Amino acid sequence: MIQQDLLEIICCPNCKGDLTYNEQTSTLTCASCENVFEVADGIPILLPKSDGK
Predict the structure, then answer these.
(1) DSSP 8-state assignment for residue 2
(2) 39 CB-contact burial (10 Å; exposed 0-12 / middle 13-18 / buried 19+)
(3) Considering the entire predicted model, what is its pTM?
(4) 5, 19, 28, 43: which has the fewest Cβ within 10 Å?
(5) How far apart are CA 53 and CA 30, in angstroms?
(6) What letter does residue 44 receive in the DSSP assignment?
């Protein structure tokens, strides 16, 4: 579970889009670029995607 006040202020590290929490999978999904980020023990793991360079 992620706190609602935290969900209101965090954004996607890649495109700065809004994130939607999925309680079933404990993930955050970006509405803009559709990247998915894990939430571990209530802590969002917002590591930006690497472009491989």
Answers:
(1) -
(2) buried
(3) 0.84
(4) 5
(5) 23
(6) E
